[in-house]
Design a protein that fits this description.
There is one protein chain. The chain is an alpha/beta fold. It is built from 6 helices and 5 strands. A 5-stranded parallel beta sheet has the order 2-1-3-5-4, with helices on both faces. Strand 1, helix 1 and strand 2 form a beta-alpha-beta unit. Helix 1 packs across helix 5. The protein is globular and about 40 Å long. It starts with a strand and ends with a helix. The relative contact order is 0.18. The mean pLDDT is 98. The structure holds D-ribose (RB5). D-ribose binds next to helix 3. The site of D-ribose (RB5) has 8 residues, from helix 3.
């Protein structure tokens, strides 16, 4: 199960991403927001991230205006490793090396088609483990 959420700045892109990924067969749980009224992105980041740390969802996608606020908020939640990506290479590497469980996108920054490629790349990658696991363990230690 893939969790997805946005604020008003990411609302339009989130809807396009949901449509695209559902067509590709992904099962998606949409945590809102559900219209263009202004909301606070940390509230949405929190519910999406908690759905991941609780085990309800495996990964999440968060969209705000820049993707930056969502990534800052998401990375405050213990067990979450979130990356804001604006290119396909970073999307690939952040799964392989950082084992990110949340991808953040900027609805006012990244075009629809590029966002689709970023999502699909990130969702199609696996964590490489090995030396990268040692580094993830060190990140986890920072949470203590
Ligand atoms: C909302 O105006 C905007 O600040 C938000 O979507 C996001 O870009 C924050 O990082």
């Amino acid at each position: 199960m893939l969790a997805i959420g946005c604020d008003h700045g990411g609302f339009e892109l989130k809807n396009h991403i949901i449509g695209y990924l559902k067509e590709k067969g992904f099962e998606i749980k949409d945590f809102g927001t559900y219209d263009e009224n202004s909301v606070d992105y940390p509230d949405i980041a929190e519910v999406v991230c908690r759905s991941i740390t609780s085990g309800e969802c495996e990964r999440g996608i968060l969209v705000c205006g820049t993707g930056i606020g969502m990534s800052i908020a998401a990375n405050k939640v213990k067990g979450i490793r979130a990356a804001m990506c604006t290119d396909v290479y970073s999307a690939k590497m952040t799964k392989q090396h950082n084992n990110t469980n949340v991808l953040c996108l900027g609805g006012r920054v990244t075009g629809r088609e590029l966002a689709f490629m970023i999502c699909e790349t990130w969702l199609g990658e696996e964590f490489l483990g090995g030396r990268h696991q040692n580094r993830i363990d060190k990140i986890s230690n920072l949470e203590k």
